[in-house]
Amino acid sequence: MAVSRPFLIPFLLRIVRRFGEEDFDQISASLAFTTLISLVPLAALILALVSAFPAFANFVDHVDKLLVAHLLPAGSAGLISGKLLQFSRRAAEVSAFGVAVLVVTTFLLMNTVERAFNHVWQVRVPRPMWQRLGLYAVVVAVWPVFIGALLAATSSALTASFGLLGELRWIRAPLFKGFSLAVLILFFAFLYHAVPNAVVRWRHAFIAGAFAALGFLLLQKSFELYLTYFPSYKAVYGAFAALPIFLLWVYLSWAVVLLGGLVAATLPEFGQSPGRRRRRV
Q1: Phi, psi (5° rounding) for residue 233?
Q2: Domain residue ranges in the chain
Q3: What pTM, to 2 d.p., does this model score?
Q4: Which of 2, 53, 126, 237 has its CA 20 to 30 A from that of 271?
Q5: pLDDT tens, 210-228?
């Protein structure tokens, strides 16, 4: 699909109009609130699953690097990631009843995300419960291990390649960051393809995944510039400065994810010929 001005302007206007008219800002706030409640239980459940397989233990470090590099606000990423892992390890050391609570909390988060995605694709009928459970299990149990394995394998390959990249760290770091960005695009593409109860073409899902991943990079860079040139938030919040930054980050992150979903959901409308599209309107 060639990107031209006659296509791009109506396409962007359609996305912006839907985002405003259908209250996606409120949906982002709702998802942010649910995420704040469920984030530690979700991370604890993932850590509990990974700890059951000792061979996957080092993958947690690589997933942590991915979080710091792309999915957490610049300047506070290390602190937030460290606290999250610390709380999650404590929460993972609970009784069987506690694990059941973690599972229920994670289910509620995933169910909220699925309902938001169905709203993006204007789907009113959810998938059957057994299909939901299978999908949630893949997202929670399979993808963290898969991402960690890919990043671990890539890190080892870059370190061992000809013995050069281990010395030239200025080359290895950008390569690893670029590969982690590609993994992030793959993950978002999977979400856009699999989570909504609708038929989403992989091409549209990958375009939306690239949009969301680049949106996170832009968001992270914007936070970095703001924290660098407008450090007044530290004087106001002091030691709690990371908390409001993280709250705003979670809200804007969900806005980016939903915008990516709108990209994937809107692309089929503009894949038709202009004549057919006018008749449909």
Answers
A1: -60, -30
A2: 5-280
A3: 0.79
A4: 126
A5: 999 999 888 888 877 777 7
